[in-house]
Design goal:
4 helices
Length: 107
């Protein structure tokens, strides 16, 4: 819900790698115009990272290149800032890759 009490329609479970950047672009634009709070944007990005790791990250732990290309440099920077207190890493197994994300809390 936005600061003005209106609900911002954002797809929380995108089906494709290309749907997610569209939602992130929209959410970042809503944040930039004060229609989405910082907390709401962070919650959305944490949800994407936790629930859709393969679409959000690449194998080296960075952002998915398709996502980065579609959202652009400024929004990518915003996404990285919003995850400033979060560690991402990937572990390979014989059955594929597993993505982990850990939220760091301030001391």
């Amino acid at each position: 819900m936005s600061q003005k009490g209106e609900k911002i329609p954002i797809l929380r479970n995108p089906l494709t790698v290309k749907q997610m950047p569209a939602q992130i672009k929209y959410a970042c634009d809503m944040y930039d115009t004060f229609k989405l709070s910082e907390k709401e944007l962070q919650e959305l990005l944490v949800h994407y990272a936790g629930s859709h790791g393969r679409k959000f990250f690449c194998l080296n732990g960075g952002l998915n290149p398709t996502l980065s290309k579609i959202i652009g440099k400024k929004r990518e920077e915003l996404v990285r800032i919003m995850h400033g207190c979060t560690l991402f890493f990937c572990s390979g197994t014989d059955k594929g890759f597993v993505f982990f994300y850990v939220k760091l809390t301030g001391a």
